[in-house]
Structure formats: C-alpha cells, structure tokens
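The step that takes the researchers longest sounds almost clerical: writing a folded protein down as plain text. The outcome of that step, for a single protein, is printed below.
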Amino acid sequence: MQISSDRHEYPAHWEADVVLRDGGTARIRPITVDDAERLVSFYEQVSDESKYYRFFAPYPRLSAKDVHRFTHHDFVDRVGLAATIGGEFIATVRYDRIGADGTPASAPADEAEVAFLVQDAHQGRGVASALLEHIGAVARERGIRRFAAEVLPANTKMIKVFTDAGYTQKRSFEDGVVRLEFDLEPTDRSMAVQYAREQRAEARSVQRLLAPGSVAVVGAGRTPGGVGRSVLDNLRNTGFTGRLYAVNKALGEGEKELGGVAAFRSVRDIDGPVDLAVVAVPAERVPEVVTECGEHGVQGLVVVSAGYAESGPGGRDRQRALVRQARSYGMRIIGPNAFGVINTSPDVRLNASLAPQMPRPGRIGLFAQSGAIGVALLSRLHRRGGGVTGVTGVSTFVSSGNRADVSGNDVLQYWYEDPDTDVVLMYLESIGNPRKFTRLARRTAAAKPLVVVQGARHGAGPRGHAVRATRLPHATVSALLRQAGVIRVDTITELVDAGLLLARQPLPAGPRVAILGNSESLGLLTYDACLAEGLRPHAPLDLTTAASAADFHAALSRALADDTSDAVVVTAIPAVGEGSVGDAALAQALRSAAAATPSKPVLVVHVELGGLAAALSAATSTAPQAPAVPAPQPRADAASATAPPLPEGAHLIPAYPASERAVRALAQAVAYAQWRRDAAEPGKVPEYDDIDQRGAAALVDGLLSRGQGLALGTAETCDLLGTYGIHVHRALPAPDPDAAAEAARTLGHPVALKATAPHLRHRADLGGVRLDLADEEQLRRAYSELTELFGTPEELRPVVQRMAPRGVDTVVRAVIDPAAGAVLSFGLAGPPSQLLGDMAHRLIPVTDRDATSLVRSIRTAPLLFGWRGSAPVDTPALEELMLRVSRLVDDHPEVVVVTLEPVVVAPHGVSVLGASVRLAPPPARDDLGPRTLPAY
C-alpha cells in the first residue's frame, strides 16, 4: 500500500507503464516513504561516476537525512518519480519548486529545479527521456511552467536528454556548471520528438515479438495434439531459424526432448536467453509461468491461453493482473486468448501460432483481433476459387486475441518502418484509442496503403476488449478514418480485394478507366460498375470472343499508352475449346503488355478461368505447403510449369471473379491515391487578427467556476462566440404581443417570429416559424396564429429576430468526444442531416483544405453551388465560419459542444441565427501528455 508523505494524497493517476527505447517496459510512479530500502539498494548499484555527475562531488552512499529527503514529498512543491522493473528502482527524477532567488518556494512560484539519476545498467534505454516527459506533465499539473537544471559539462548524456527534448530553452555556463532553463509548454518540436520516440520504442517492442532469436513453448504436451504441442510442432515444422525449447512441468527426470525439441520442466532451467515465450497453460497457472519468464529475462509473451476477459468479470480481473505482472518485468504481451504470430522472413521463419502451415513470404502485413477471422483472411489470400484468384504473400501476421497489451496501434508503429511490408490489412473489432489510431494511420497511409474492416460496428465489441466509450456513431468514426487516409471497407472479401490490388499494382493517377475484353456484356457490366463507384470509364472495347492472346496484348498496350486513361480493366471469358495453354498464353500477353507501361494499374475480371488466374498470379501462392522434412528447405515453385517467370520489377496482375469487386477495389485505390496527393499539401490553420483568445479564456474560466458542466445562456453564448469573430443574430424574447412589437421596432422590420420550445425549435415544417413579417400588423397576426395553434407563450417561448438574407440553411457543429477527440461536423439543416444523416466530419484542428473539402463532402452539396439554376452561395464565408469554430474548440478544450443552427448561407455572407455552447472541464488529452501504455 502506498502512503502519502506530507500534505497531499498519493497521486495514483501519475502511475504509468512506458515502453523504452529497446522495446522493454518500465513502470513510472511517485516515490513514497515506503521506498527507503529500494532507494538505498538502487543507489548502491549506481557507479561512482554517475553519483559524481548527480551530486557534483564524490558521494558513495546516502545518509539517513538524504533518504528522508528523497522519499518524503508533498506532491506539489517537491515531487520524486521512479522508474521500476520488477518492483526495483532503475532510475529516479525529482523536482523542487524554487523562487526567483533560487530558494525553495511554493505557489505561485512557477519554476523548479530538476535532477535525474539512472542506474548505469539501464543507461541508453531512454529511461531519462521518459521520466522527463512524466515529471514535466506532473509539474504542469502543479502550476510549474519552467524547469532549471545544473549539469556538469562532462555529463554529456544528461545534457543531451534536455537538449533533445524539443522544449524552448536557453543555456548558460557559470562556475564550471552548465545551467539549462526550458519552458514546459509543449511545442510542435517537443511533440514531434515525443511521437518519434514513441514510434521507435513501440516498433522495437513489436519487433522483439516478431523476430526473436529463441522461443520457449510453455505447456507443450508429451503427445501430438493440444494447443501447446501444436504451436511447438508448427514452429519446428516451418523451420524456425532460432533456438526452440519446450517447457512442460510434468516432464520426468529422464525426459529431455519433446518431438525432437529440447525440453525442460521450467523456463528457469533453460541454459541461455529466451526472447519469446508462448504460454499455453490453463489460466490459473499463467501467473506462475509469467514469474518464471520474468525472472529469466524473457522479453515478451504470446498468451494463447483462454479464460480471461472473454469469459466474464472474473476473467477480466485475471487479465488485468496478467498485464500488470508482465509489465512489472518489462515484458509485453500478445493476447491473451491469442491465435499467435507469424513472420515469413527467411531469416526468421516464425510460426508461433495455431496455423498448422506457414504462408509463403510476401509484402502484406496482416492484423486480426479475431483468430477465426485471421484464419479466414490467410485462407482467402491463397485461395484460387470462390474469392480473389491469384495470390500475394504475407510478411507478418498478428492475431491479438483480447489485445490486453499489444494492440493494432503498436503493430502499425512496426509496419510503418518495416521494409518487408508494402500494404497493411487490419480486421478490427474495437479501437481502444481512436485518437492515437487516427494519428498513426495518417502517418502510415502517407507511406503505404492501410486497409481496415471493422467488425462489431452496430453493437458492443467483444467482451475481451476493454475500450473507452465513444458517443460518435460508426458512420462518423468511418469518415474520420477516411480523412486519415484509411481505406475503409465493409467485408473481409473487400479487404482482400483491395489489398491484392494495392500490393500488386501502382496507384492510379486519376479516375479515368479504359475497359477492354472479349465479352461485350461483361464490358458493359464493368462500365456500369465504374459509374456507380464514381469513376470515369471510357466506352468498353469489345475484342469479340474470337480474340487471340495477341489481340489482347495489342489492345492493352494501346490502352496503357493512351494519355486519357489512368487504369485498365480487362474482361475475359473462356473461348470454346480453350484450354490451360491458352490461359497461360493470355496471361503472358497481358503481363508483357502491362510490363511495358508499369505506371498504370491493370485489373482482370475473369469468368471461370482457373488457369488464367493461376498464370496471372505468377505462381506466388501463399497456399500452405506441407514441408518434406521438419526443417524445410526453400521449395520449388509449385506452379512454375504453368507460367513463365516474371521479369525483374514487373507487377503481378490481380484477377477478380466479378466486375463489381474489381471496380470497387479500383475505386478505393483511386480515392487513396487522391488522398496521398492531397496529403502532400495538407493546408494550414489560418490566423485571424480579430480573435481574442485571452478574452475567451477569461470568459470560460469565469463561467466554469460556477460548476462542472454548464450550458450557456443566450447572452453568454453570443459573448463567447464573439471573441472568435462568430456573430449571432440577436433574438429578443417576446413573452406577449406588445413585447414582440417592441422587439421588432428595436431590430427593424422585416422580422421573423420563432417558437423556441424544444419540440418546435428548428422545426419550420411544423409551422413554428413565421418569416418576412413586414410590419407590426403582420407580426401581431402571426403571434396570434402561433399561440392558437401551439399553446401559450410560456409553452412556446417565442422570440423575434431580424430577417437574414435568403440562402441555404446549414448546421455547423463541434463536439469533443472522449475517445476520438474534437470533431467538426457540417450538413444542411433539417431533413438532409436529421432524416438522411447527410453530415460530413473532420478532426479538429481543421485546415483550410479540410474546410473546403468538408463543404463539398455531403451528398446535398450541389444545393450550395447553383443546383438547377439557383444562385450559388458564399461557400468561402461558410468555410471561414467553420475554421473559426475549429479554432475556438482547439484553443479551449473546455468548450465541449458548439452548435450553430441554422446558419443561412446567402450569395454574399453567412448569418448565424441560432447557437448553443456547452462547457465542461476538458477531457484528458492522452495524445498531448507523456507516453504511456493503456492502464490496467
């Protein structure tokens, strides 16, 4: 039990698990009075040189006074944090608040001295950098805005920790000591440094799991069958290049092997390092195994054992304990309830999974939270009938099960820089941190395609997944993922269809599609499919059923050479009497023509052409191959007899059994290619001279002082929005006809009379609004009609508002979702958005390019641009309004909801006729805080 020291309760929310530079983990937590013995033991293991650098003098041991000082903190003015592994200190950091004269002080002093000490055995692992991030976040929370540190010039490692952090700083040299001062407010550079360190550390942690030098299977049975023995046999049979061990607690004294693999009763008995342990024992025995692995120095675990969160509350508690225990030893976990991992690299050949055979090497990275879906994806990637024919191989495969620790985010970090992976396919049943996933997806998609299908879209995710709740509908989340460059598909069939095209062919330069083939009907179906997907197809070229391979070659060559086409779809049906030789000849003709113009993608739509599909695939099947011996040698290509080898650098041609599937995959590639081009020039967040950010902050602070959550009144809403140049048309209350007439005289005719009761607000279709009231007589008549139809003024809450110029009614809304972050939404007011759900969404902060695309993303956008002869409205003014709303929410995260409705967009200018704002304490921004692993 942790005991607080002086004035404040123990800040448990400062505890965090972090991934270090080498991929291992450590726990960071506050130092308390209970840590005296740990501190002394830690200090004894620090070299004399490191002690000298810390205290500027020989300091062989800590005095009792020192121990008291370094373990007693008030968690405000004096704070100490420790990085621990296995419960023992490996590094410490401390700050002491100081005043202008450098002496100890309390708030409102906003400067503190900071000092580190890292055990020599753990230097170079990025421990100090992680501690600096966390102690900086703690200091900001306690009102400290600046750190000062004094470092000996010879202590270059510590100087580098400070200078590389990316904070704004200044350096001075006095009395033989380097003094560094730096502000703690995050900067673009400090965030970039933090994200880069996060990427390297998390990628390295996954690499240790996917490319181990030694593997132990814990729970391997004596006889074939069973989960543990199956994994052991799979590792052995696929020729794992490292050291392989079997562990079975029930082994007799004389049993030294299992299935030809060295066997031991405990991981502790293995003579040599173990990088990865596959755990396949009953859940109740897993803690014992984790302890053995941790004490032996195992780097990571794949836990295939079930009986965790998927089984109910008791299993969820076991899962939390498992993660805490593994992380305490610096280990990461794939699972529990995992199917396993595969790495097809010839340098590794790792099949630590329940898949009995290894897929052939390729360039696709595959992630599946579900083992069953993972098997289905592997199967579809190699299957030649009933799915995409022709095959592309897999680089690495991860099936994470309950993903209690390693998640899709971690694997994305690895694939981002993996030279063996060109395309990423992911099946996700939940997204634990959508904000981080979106950030990582945007960066990954800028380098290589990322295709995602999400299961459990219309209900709760699997019971084994602990995820934060989101209030956003699935359609909104999908739109945000597409904004980040993710290719969103609905089925695993579409996932494979898109993945094979992107892995085999170049990206199209545009939407123009040439269609040619030997079937007029199939060509027309393809043409229609292109139009349905928003592509621009040329009229199909019918080569007739008598077309030869040479005819296909010539036609494809001409289409590829045509500057008016960006991609070519070839349709083919079997000719009467055509055999496998003809299929091979046609495939060779298409491949040779495509090779001459490798910059344009080519797709084939085939009908029952098994031989053609095999030939087009160039015999690169990932169909599992049974090894001839336990340690297989490279196998001869099974289909080499049916297809000549491809020339160096040539693209494989994907073949599809239906026009719709081929064209849908092509349309997704076209959209992704356009996103890549747009991402190269992402736009900017504009500055506006009339924005009063400080004034808005003062208003927000004053309003929030009244309570935790607050819906602003009309005047307060107008005042806050006005600080960002958003002006709402005045609406004066009209509790009776005389008050309405007086309001109209104040505002000036013509006016509108509106009922603002919740059931009538924004419902002009119900008759609760009267427009263009030119004089007092019309106003009084309208007032009488409203009260006769809908009730008393107290029920209607009528207001009078000056008429705005005629235009298109729209709605602009910004919300802060606890999981996804701040989101800006736009649509037309009324039925288009409320009934049809025609809304577009962008993540905040929105750039000028984002705002432009947002306006054009809704299906009803033509109404803004002169549809059927109407006057186009002022969309630049609308875009500026959305940019101002984005700035307000981004600058002040306490503004959790902003709704502007209706916003009338006229041919010249916009009029905001209604607005509401809600304030609340800002939600935690874990993307801006220090690096942490999800808490358990």
About this structure: The first strand starts at residue 16 and ends at 19. The radius of gyration is 33 Å. Residues 1-6, 384-391, 619-649 have pLDDT under 50 and may be disordered. The chain is about 35% helix and 20% strand.
